[in-house]
Amino acid sequence: MNNRLTITYCTQCRWLFRASWMAQELLTTFQEELDEVALRPGTGGTFDVHLNGELIFSRAEQGRFPESKELKQLVRDTVNPDRDLGHSDR
Protein backbone atom coordinates (compact mmCIF):
# COMPACT_ATOMS: atom_id res chain seq x y z
CA MET A 1 0.00 0.00 0.00
CA ASN A 2 1.26 3.46 -0.86
CA ASN A 3 1.01 5.76 2.14
CA ARG A 4 0.46 9.36 1.07
CA LEU A 5 0.29 12.20 3.58
CA THR A 6 -0.95 15.65 2.61
CA ILE A 7 -0.71 18.78 4.73
CA THR A 8 -2.96 21.60 3.56
CA TYR A 9 -1.83 24.91 5.04
CA CYS A 10 -3.06 28.51 4.83
CA THR A 11 -0.91 30.70 2.60
CA GLN A 12 -2.66 33.85 3.89
CA CYS A 13 -1.54 32.97 7.43
CA ARG A 14 1.96 32.11 6.19
CA TRP A 15 1.94 28.61 7.67
CA LEU A 16 4.24 27.07 5.05
CA PHE A 17 7.15 26.92 7.51
CA ARG A 18 5.01 25.09 10.09
CA ALA A 19 3.72 22.66 7.44
CA SER A 20 7.19 21.98 6.05
CA TRP A 21 8.63 21.42 9.54
CA MET A 22 5.84 18.94 10.31
CA ALA A 23 6.45 17.20 6.97
CA GLN A 24 10.15 16.89 7.80
CA GLU A 25 9.37 15.43 11.24
CA LEU A 26 7.04 12.84 9.74
CA LEU A 27 9.40 11.94 6.87
CA THR A 28 12.25 11.47 9.34
CA THR A 29 10.18 9.28 11.66
CA PHE A 30 8.41 7.28 8.94
CA GLN A 31 11.07 7.11 6.22
CA GLU A 32 10.23 3.45 5.54
CA GLU A 33 6.44 3.73 5.84
CA LEU A 34 5.57 6.97 4.02
CA ASP A 35 5.83 6.93 0.25
CA GLU A 36 4.94 10.56 -0.24
CA VAL A 37 4.36 13.75 1.75
CA ALA A 38 2.73 16.64 -0.08
CA LEU A 39 2.26 20.26 0.94
CA ARG A 40 -0.92 21.74 -0.48
CA PRO A 41 -1.49 25.51 -0.34
CA GLY A 42 -4.88 26.60 0.96
CA THR A 43 -6.60 29.66 2.40
CA GLY A 44 -8.98 30.60 5.18
CA GLY A 45 -6.86 29.49 8.13
CA THR A 46 -6.74 25.85 7.11
CA PHE A 47 -4.22 23.39 8.52
CA ASP A 48 -5.46 19.89 7.69
CA VAL A 49 -3.56 16.63 7.59
CA HIS A 50 -4.80 13.76 5.42
CA LEU A 51 -3.35 10.27 5.32
CA ASN A 52 -4.36 8.15 2.34
CA GLY A 53 -7.25 10.53 1.70
CA GLU A 54 -8.61 10.36 5.26
CA LEU A 55 -8.59 13.46 7.46
CA ILE A 56 -6.55 12.67 10.57
CA PHE A 57 -6.20 16.22 11.96
CA SER A 58 -8.00 19.49 11.33
CA ARG A 59 -7.05 22.75 12.99
CA ALA A 60 -10.61 24.00 12.43
CA GLU A 61 -12.12 21.00 14.23
CA GLN A 62 -9.57 20.90 17.08
CA GLY A 63 -9.19 24.66 17.51
CA ARG A 64 -5.40 24.31 17.62
CA PHE A 65 -2.36 23.04 15.75
CA PRO A 66 -1.29 19.42 16.17
CA GLU A 67 1.62 18.59 18.41
CA SER A 68 4.41 16.71 16.63
CA LYS A 69 4.06 13.79 19.06
CA GLU A 70 0.30 13.62 18.49
CA LEU A 71 0.61 13.63 14.71
CA LYS A 72 3.29 10.94 14.80
CA GLN A 73 0.98 8.74 16.88
CA LEU A 74 -1.92 9.29 14.46
CA VAL A 75 0.25 8.40 11.47
CA ARG A 76 1.78 5.40 13.24
CA ASP A 77 -1.67 4.04 14.13
CA THR A 78 -2.41 3.74 10.41
CA VAL A 79 0.91 2.89 8.76
CA ASN A 80 2.52 0.65 11.41
CA PRO A 81 0.33 0.13 14.51
CA ASP A 82 2.86 -2.15 16.25
CA ARG A 83 5.71 0.34 16.00
CA ASP A 84 7.14 1.82 19.19
CA LEU A 85 7.77 5.54 18.84
CA GLY A 86 10.04 5.73 21.86
CA HIS A 87 9.70 9.05 23.68
CA SER A 88 6.79 10.06 21.42
CA ASP A 89 4.70 7.28 22.96
CA ARG A 90 5.16 8.50 26.53
From TrEMBL:
Keywords: Redox-active center. The keyword Cytoplasm does not apply. Residues 70-90 are annotated as: Disordered. This is SelT/SelW/SelH family protein. It comes from Fodinibius salsisoli.
